[in-house]
Amino acid sequence: MREFSPGRKAMSFAGIILGLVSLITGLAMAISGSGNTMRGTLLVAGVVLLIAGVYLFPTLKHHRTIINVLFLFPLLFAFAVTVIIPLVLGIGYSFTNWDGIRVKGFVGLENYIRMFRQPGFIWSILITFLFVIFNMVLVNVVAFLLALLCTSKIKGLGFFRASYFLPNLIGGIVLGYIWQFVFSNVVTKFTEALAGNRYSMLSETRTAFIAIVVVYVWQYAGYIMLIYITGLNTIPGDVLEASSIDGADKLQTLFQIKIPMIAPTVTICTFLTLTSAFKQFDVNLALTNGTGSVASFFGNYLTNGTEMLALNIYSTAVINNEYALGEAKAVLFFIILAAVSIIQVRISNKKEVEL
What is the largest distance, in Å, between two alpha-carbon atoms of the chain? Predict the structure, then answer.
């Protein structure tokens, strides 16, 4: 059995000891508020030395496990810091009177009771579900049709693919302001020429909601199109050739061969569209900022007619400084999104088996 050399053992222990000393010193400087500029260097050097020391650690039985953990640690650490820890803390804060800085007391389910007593929040949930349904259908249909076009035998396929995907590269905030200008200054000229009055789609809740759907489909369809193109390109050519020899026309080939064979792709695209539509925030913020009047909703007059659930949570926490209430809404948002996503994947997988 192979043994580690004494020199390697010494280097391993030296790296671990020096790394720990360097980390502890750097952390002590950071906690004490020391203005020493060496603390960052000490922290980085400590991490590097500690990893090198553990990598050279003199053990044969678990050495491979140690190496695997070292390589996975950056990803696991980042996931824990950005997802797991904030999720756990957020759930805890939702049961307290948290002001964004410190916890002032435990309030139990009060935040959850308060949010369900807000008609504006209930309206945001309903309009978000409506937005998700519209976009799941429209984005996938438009993207699939574009994918069929971009896999056909026409000239300039590269140009068409790049053109359709280009809107996805534009940031949501910028995209929202661009389309706000279009709806308020360009579309109004057409309505004035056709109907004699300047009418902006953003002036009423119903038409503003349609405008948000249009912008979202325009932005996201190109991205989903690329996934459908990948799925269509994986269909064996001999299968399509055999269907043609058997006398199948284009519609029969599409519905009986292509769509069933890319069922896993449809599942992926549906899941991505579902989760993305639920989390819609930037376009909603830039295009309408959630404004829009609703004359009567359970006897209440609302002014947040186009406010999606993510924007409602942001407004509650950041704009109104009710961070604990915002956390409660975010926890409910997480539960809804997780439940709907699991149900959608299960239904799609069942359909895959049937196809």
Answer: 91
